[in-house]
Each structure stands twice: as C-alpha cells, then as structure tokens.
Hints:
Blueprint: H1 2-44, E1 51-53, E2 64-68, H2 77-82, E3 85-89, H3 98-102, E4 108-110, H4 115-129, E5 138-140, E6 166-172, H5 189-197, E7 205-208, H6 216-220, H7 222-237, H8 246-253, H9 266-276, H10 284-296, H11 304-311, H12 317-326, H13 334-345, H14 350-361, E8 368-369, H15 371-382, H16 390-396, E9 404-405, H17 406-415, H18 419-422
Parallel strand pairs: 1-7, 2-5, 2-6, 3-4, 3-5
Antiparallel strand pairs: 6-7, 8-9
Helix pairs in contact: 9-12, 9-13, 10-13, 10-14, 13-14, 13-15, 14-15
Amino acid sequence: MEMTLSSRASLETPSCTSCASLLFRKSRLVDLALKAIMRAMWFSGGFHWVRVKGRPALPSEAPILTLAPHSSYFDAIPVTMTMASIVMKAESRNVPVWGTLIKFIRPVFVSRSDQDSRRKTVEEIKRRAFSAGEWPQIMIFPEGTCTNRSCLIAFKPGAFIPGVPVQPVVLRYPNETDTISWTWQGPGAFKILWLTLCQLHNSIEIEYLPTYTPSEEEKRDPALFASNVRHIMAKALQLPIIDYSFEDCQLAMAKGPLCLPGHTCLLEFSRLVRRLGLNVSVTDQLLQEEGSRARKLCGHKLGLEGFAEYVNVPMTETLQDIFALFEEHGQMDVREYVIALSVVCRPFRYLDTIQLAFRMFEAEEDGAIVEDELAVILKTALGVADLAVCDVFRAVDTRDKGKITFDDFCRFMEGCPNFVEFYHCVPDQATHTCSELPNPITNSFCLDFSPRSQNTPNNMHNKKHD
C-alpha cells in the first residue's frame, strides 16, 4: 500500500509542478501584456517618459509600498509599472474598462462606509504581507483620499498594522499647468482627463525612498509608525503636514440642521479620538451599547481617572486633551462624549445622533427631556460652548409641558430644518468650507480645519472662542 501511494505521489507531483509552472508563466505573460497596454495608454495621454529616482525594493525587503501624495487617477502610473496590488475603493470595480483591467492586479477592495469591510481589508493586508512572496507587493495610498498636493494629511494605519518594513514612494507632477489634481471640490474626472489630454506633454516623477523598518515600539503602535513614515515623506516632498483626515473634512462640510459652526471643537475631538484609536470599528451597535453604559451612570460625572477607566485606555496627554473638551470643574458627563463620538463617526446621520442622545437623557416614565438637557445635547452635537435654546425649546414644547420627546423634536425639525440659524442659537454662525478661506484654492483639500483659536483650549462648557 505504501508503495502504491508513493508511486502515485511520484507520478502526480511532476504534473502538479508543471501546472503551477504553466499558471505562473501565463500570469507573467498577462502582466507583461497589461504593462505594455497601460504604458501605451499613458504615452497617448502625454506621459511620454516617466522619471524614476531611487531603487524599488524587492518584495522580500518591503512587502508594502506607501505612496503619497494621492491627488489623481494618474497616480495609477506607478501601479501599472510594477503590477503591484493596491487597496482601492470598492466602487472602482464598476468603472468601465478600468474596473476590468484593475482586477488583473489582484486589488484589495474596501468600502469606506462599511466598518466590517475595513476590518477585513486590514486582515487581508496582513495575510498578504506575511505570505513570503506568494502575493505581489501591495501599494497603498495611506492618505485614503485625493488632495491637491499642498500638504500631507493624516495617514490611515492600514499599511502599518502588519508591522513589516515599508518603502515610502513619493509622487511629483512638475508641470507648469496643473491639470492633474482631482478632488471633490474641483472639476470632475472627465474634465480633468480632457484638460490633461490637451497638454502636449505631462511630467511625472516617482521617487523610491529607502525602505523603512519599524522599531518594536512602532510595531506595537501603528499610528506612531504611520506618523514617522509621513514625516520622512513630507521632508522628501518639502511639504507641510496636517493632522486631519478625509473623515474630518466630511465632518466639517456635512450639511443639515446641525451643520457645524466655524468655531466647533468637534474637529479637534475627531483628531484626538483618532490618535487614540477610539473611533476604530465604531458601529451603530457599539454606539448603542455606549449609550446604554452612559445612561446607567444616571448623570454621575467622572474625573480624569474615571474617564480613562471608562474608555479603557491608559492615561496619556491625548486622553487629557479629550477630557478637557468636556470637563467642568474637574468632572465630565460621559453622555456628552458618546454624543460627540456619534457625530464624528456618523457626520451625515445627525438624526441618529439626536435619537441616541435623547435615549441617554430621557426620563424613564415618559421618554422626555427638559430644556437644560436639550441645551447639553445640542451644544455637544455642535461642539460649541454657548448655545441659546430657550426659543427653540418653546417652539418644540407647543403644549407648554416643560418637557419634550424625540418625536416632538423630529416634528419641529421637519417644519424648521434650519432652526439653529433661524433662532440664532450659535453666535457668528459659519461653516467650514474652503470657499470661505482667505485664499481659496480651486480643486483643493480644505486645510483650515483647526478651531479658530489655536492658542486656547476648546471646551464646550466654559471656554469661548474668537
């Protein structure tokens, strides 16, 4: 029996090896064909030659390549030159022709709106990074969105969670006229393509920086790893860095009844919770659980140590900064923290945030809240220190009961969707939009996200802003 099995193995092994070799050769042929097709496409688009500086690392040296700044669809040029896998938006697979071609480089698709998709993406990146060469290198744009190349925004941690060496790669487009940049505030993709095709020649520079091997501390702290790599890339590009992200811009530009005022401190809160990782994998279910925990405290306020225990993170300067946004006389109400967390994690779902807030504050017997509680909810949801809600509460409380329910408030908002501005709730109402900056930049990433008063702590309770 052993001889039979051995004989069978000896017969089948060469056949399997031959199949694997054939598949490998076919894959190589497909890669070469795609490289030629894509190079011809870029050439016809005016990218007649590509300047490359530095030495690309081997997959064994750096399984992950981090590219920045990300500003255009033309950033795909280094991808097609190397046939490396990339992490890209799930929506991109539906783009005609391009979506079909991109599947050949075995991308990792991620959905921005699906928290579970993000977790699976990180797991897939880790699996490929530790595959010992079975998968091609992964190219990742850690900014996670397009900017106008005027700065480097916060890097997402996905590329750095595996804790493996990465090779930073910087992109430059030294053209006299910028027809390359594509962001949500400027011309659309087709107009950008047309303007670029109208140029006789388009320049691009790709520089491969030395491979960065993380320290043990950086392996334990992906945020630190990402920050250090970003500083190296910013230095090579001679660009400034800002500690705000794509999600922060979404938050600042979200429309609706609770459109954030210009002096909100929620943008600072968003930056701080991201630094501590408190916004990672925040789902609707998790927020409901946090709301239930906060409600059980029955308004009992916590000191700094109690808050650290509540969020289960060590005492750090960043945690103290978060606490300072909510503290009053050395204590804070964690219900406010939950409201703020809901706003930054669900910027376009203000109604869900208000409903969560009502559930934390409402009385058990009738599900209603009083005027002071409405003031706390709206102040926290807007991230401001002062809010005039007297007129709003009277308008909602049509029966003059001295209390209102969530249904009452919803009916009021249907009739007065701009109630914050209409009732002059917030002094000097202003929203964060790039068009209001002193020197607006067309097709740009909004840079001025920070609160207007940078030298003063931003506290919802007792600190006023300029």
